[in-house]
Galactosylceramide sulfotransferase
Amino acid sequence: MDWKEVAINKSLTARCSSSVVMSYGFVMSIMRIAEFNLTFPLIKEPRHRLKQERVNDTEGNAVTSSYDFTGNQAQEKTSVPCKPVNNILFLKVHKTGSSTVTNIFNPYGDKRDLIFALPTEDSFHWPLRFEETTRYITILRDPPAQLESVFNYYDIYRKTFQPQSSPTTPLESFFQNITFYRSSRVLDGLGVDLNLLKNPSLFDLGLDREYHENLTVVQDYIRCLQQEFDLVMLMEYFDESLVLLKRQLCWKMEDILFFKLNERVQKEKQHISNQVREQIKKWNSADVLLYDVFNQTLWQKIMKEGPDFFEDLSIFKKEKEAMENKCLRKGKFLTKLWVRKKVQGYKLKTNISRELNTTRAKMTMNELKYLSYLQRKVTKQLQDVDDNRIGPIRMTR
Ligand SMILES: Nc1ncnc2c1ncn2[C@@H]1O[C@H](COP(=O)(O)OS(=O)(=O)O)[C@@H](OP(=O)(O)O)[C@H]1O
């Protein structure tokens, strides 16, 4: 199918239009997501591959299989016939492990020369048209841990009020002064975006802050997201979520191997006391509700998979560990994200094959670097399409 001609059946706004808040808040917020989170990959089949896949279909379906850590096919494990899903929309949510997930999709699509839909400017200009077959995926994190990560990663603790030699932690002091910080004007003045602090997941998923205290709207919105998203992963169950993803997309074990990205250095992490945890849960109660619903949904889905899900999970954990042992040097390494920001990084062993080095190096690549590489690649792909007089591929509203 030509993705220029595809109808908007899976547009979020179209599917959720019956909801109270969808018509305005959702669209606007989605635009903001793309502004904050530059990567918003939608993997698309290139035309030549679509043709090829049709041929494959008539000849027989693909069979999922298991790979060992070297990338060689070890043995066919699963025998349920299925066809790998290659049309994917991944919606990034701040500080949920989303860069690691992006770096699973990036090499997957890159290796197969799939087309990435990436924003040309800062925004993706929703609502967009997506094929009916597109799978919508996102990831959430336990709200207190997410807030602690946001708070420290974006140096909010430096910008907010912290008395000199205070015995309280920055988060404790933030909550002691919460009435003061409640207004976005105060935080704006400090150069802090309240949307990162106030129910950041729901905001990234499109619900404007003005609705966050309205339980009916929040519940409606969550119901809508449940219909809309094919898989909502959870950072706390990262491996479980990935194995489910692999099964839902009919991918191979090798396709979901990853290196954890964007992890703060230990000294930047802050212990969250029980009291602060409860304060965060109250402050971000809409995100707590969202998380609880999708926690339940994830486990319902896992239970439906049956006991062999856990066999897959244990194979995956072993393969991942073996890959790390084979490819990564021991020790602590840092990688620079931007001028002042360093996070945990990796160094590859020198005694691995060149082929393996290339694959694994891409898996350790930081998101922004991968993004600019993909942007160059997609530009070239589009030129090739033009050269074949097939016409440019555009995202249309
Ligand atoms: N696989 C896996 N398992 C557990 N935790 C993981 C994983 N991958 C990433 N992370 C943690 O996710 C945090 C970074 O999230 P994001 O990549 O979404 O951040 S960003 O918004 O794109 O900057 C960051 O959390 P903090 O270290 O607490 O800041 C990462 O450590």
Q: What stands out?
A: The pocket of PPS is lined by residues 94-100, 149, 153, 235, 238, 260-264 (CB under 6 Å). The longest strand covers residues 135-140. Confidence is low (pLDDT under 50) at residues 1-41, 45-77, 389-397. Residues 259 and 364 are 6 Å apart (CA to CA).
